[in-house]
């Protein structure tokens, strides 16, 4: 009976992830605003199976991330900008009015299209090393070698997307961080890109630490979308329970905090 119930749920076209997630997402977004810092949204993609990829938009919550909305596609490669744009615009109305927002994304999303969409928005987008910076007549990957750690108001790629670029090449790291950003770059602003890593533990939760979504035999993207919905709600309830327990049964360290 349990298997039949799950089968009916995952195959039900009336179960729409965005509509169910919206009240949960609005609540945690409002909580994030009260901290006085920009609301950090993280855009990333992960492989779910041999045939499926998920494009996820998550909220940085503490040192980790909570899923807000996602799109599952049957593909082996990157999910394109049209889907990225639709996902971002679906979540935008959920954000409290006037709240400062900062978008983080890995180098698969540091494209001229997304940078152009982010004009007049706060963002930190990692870039690949093979993008042409027209103002400097150099590719992004060569900037660190030429000690160009700060590029202001430059045009990127043949689409001439205008942005600022900050670069960090820390000792012992093979590749530099090349970060497109909305503000004139500095070392600390470039370092803020590290907030993106909160989404990695979340993907690990889905794949290997309890949920095991990567082991699914589901063949259809819409059913896998609804499976992620069940997992996302479980993650929200776990976080909510942990916050409640910290208030009502605090550990000695939590009492001091």
Short description:
The chain contains nine helices and ten strands.
CATH topology: Nucleotidyltransferase, domain 5
Instruction: Specify the number of helices.
Output: 9
Mean pLDDT over the full residue set: 86
Please state the CA-atom Rg, rounded to the nearest Å. Answer: 20 Å
Distance between the termini: 46 Å
Strands, total number: 10
- Note the beta-strand portion: 15-25%
Overall description:
The structure is a single chain. The chain has 257 residues and is an alpha+beta fold. The protein has one domain (2-125, 186-256): Nucleotidyltransferase, domain 5 (2-Layer Sandwich), CATH 3.30.420. Helix content is 37%, strand content 25%. The protein is built from nine helices and ten strands. The protein has an eight-stranded mixed beta sheet, with helices on both faces. Strands 6-7 form a two-stranded antiparallel sheet. A hairpin with a 4-residue loop joins strand 6 (132-133) and strand 7 (138-139). Helix 2 (17-33) packs parallel to helix 8. It is globular. The mean pLDDT is 86.
């Amino acid at each position: 009976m349990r298997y039949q119930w799950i089968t009916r749920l995952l195959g039900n076209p009336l179960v729409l992830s965005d509509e169910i997630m919206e009240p949960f997402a609005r609540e945690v977004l409002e909580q994030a605003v009260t901290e006085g810092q920009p609301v950090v949204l993280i855009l990333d993609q992960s492989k779910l199976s041999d045939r499926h990829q998920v494009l996820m938009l998550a909220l940085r919550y503490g040192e980790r991330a909570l899923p807000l909305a996602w799109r599952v596609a049957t593909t082996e490669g990157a999910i394109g900008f049209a889907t990225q744009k639709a996902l971002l615009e679906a979540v935008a109305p959920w954000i409290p009015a006037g709240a400062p927002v900062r978008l983080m994304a890995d180098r698969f999303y540091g494209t001229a299209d997304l940078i152009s969409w982010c004009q007049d928005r706060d963002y930190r987008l990692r870039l690949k090393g093979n993008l042409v910076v027209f103002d400097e007549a150099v590719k992004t990957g060569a900037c660190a070698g030429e000690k160009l750690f700060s590029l202001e108001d430059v045009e990127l790629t043949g689409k001439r997307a205008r942005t600022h670029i900050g670069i960090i090449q820390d000792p012992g790291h093979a590749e530099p961080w090349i970060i497109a950003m909305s503000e004139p770059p500095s070392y600390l602003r470039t370092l803020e890109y590290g907030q993106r890593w909160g989404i990695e533990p979340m993907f690990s939760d889905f794949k290997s630490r309890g949920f095991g979504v990567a082991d699914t035999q589901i063949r259809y993207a819409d059913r896998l979308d609804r499976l992620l919905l069940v997992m996302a709600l479980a993650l929200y309830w776990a976080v909510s329970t942990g916050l409640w327990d910290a208030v009502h049964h605090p550990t000695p360290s939590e009492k001091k905090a």
